[in-house]
User: What shape does this take?
Amino acid sequence: MFQLSGIVGGKSQIKVAPRQTLLLQQIVIRVKKGRKLVLKNLNFLFNNEAFAIKIEAQPSPGKFIARGGAGDLTPNKVLFNNNTGEDQIIFLLVSAINTSRTTQQLSRSDSWHLNLQR
Assistant: This one.
């Protein structure tokens, strides 16, 4: 089990166009052969309810999206299943999606915390 946390940060709010996705964090993870990467818990707070959080493992199709601006969730979602026969390197991405039809702003204090299992 391991944890990943992040905060938008910066000096000012970030404008996000309607229906656009903004990458907030990207890390590289090794998943051993025969293992899975599972999103066990997610706690996030976006001050603007128009934003959803998206957690995905690429190049796998595995992703999890939570709407409503905030949440303390237990998705237990498999993001990547390594059945290739050898260790794989994947990218874990955390993004914000503006679900509204107007430009919205992410706050500098918007944050997330993930518990993942390999």
About this structure: The chain is about 0% helix and 60% strand. The chain has a mean pLDDT of 96. The two ends are 7 Å apart (CA to CA). The CA atoms of residues 23 and 95 lie 4 Å apart.
